[in-house]
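pasting for ref. prot 1 ->
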Amino acid sequence: MPDARGQDRVGAMAKKAIYSGTLGIDLKSGKETELFKWFLACLLFGKPIQQGVARRAYDEFVQEGLTTPQAILRAGWDKVVDVLDRGHYVRFDFSTATKLLEVSRTLIEQYGTLSNLFKLSKARPDLLRRLQAFKGVGPTTARIFLRDAGAVFLPGNAARPGHRSGRPCGGG
């Protein structure tokens, strides 16, 4: 619906889809680190922040080696805030640092790994429910995460006919 300036608000707010492959994440490898990097990216891109800023912040996490929940916990809140700030993720740096630490802690305590979370989930709805139980993970972030990760890590999906790795994340 157009606003007072005649612009479509929905269209103006829409984001260009991002891809796990575009971020250099190789989910087809089946590695836990790659799966967590995609989860981290989806958490960062899930905030109402410019995609370029989310990308820079994600790249800073990779450069710092903060690509596992254990590494994020070892780094601690001050270091995570510093990494977010270097990526210009300053509007949400404190809340995002707190969220990333809590998500990492909860993941380790409840599941050990994201791969285990997938294995323990009976079906996609159960997996969505488990993902949304994490602080700050809503339905959209969970669906975005599963666009790429579900195709590889959900039982029976890896060999789905016509599936292409590197499907979009974001933009919807």
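and prot 2 ->
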Amino acid sequence: MLKGKGRLGLAGWCKIVASEVSMAQMTPQVSELLEKALTLSTEERRLLVSRLGETLEDEVADEGVEAAWDEEIKRRVDDIRSGRVPTIPGQRVRERLDARLRNGRA
């Protein structure tokens, strides 16, 4: 138990410290927005967070990641087309999955 933190364990203390650090890094404009946002209802905050999250998803992904996925997809397609990787017919996959589910092995 940390002195002055009551029953708050280390994990709780870390959350407080992380929160304080984040607050210290905020601009006055962001701090003001946060204060206003915290006065909203739970549902309003949920909608706000959801919409803000959507705007982050709209941003361009790390170009290195996109390029790596493109290379990986090309490699996998080439492996299949060349016969280096055997394929399994979809019906056989479904049969195997059905058998595993019937036997209680997911």
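The longest helix spans residues 63-82.
The mean pLDDT is 78.
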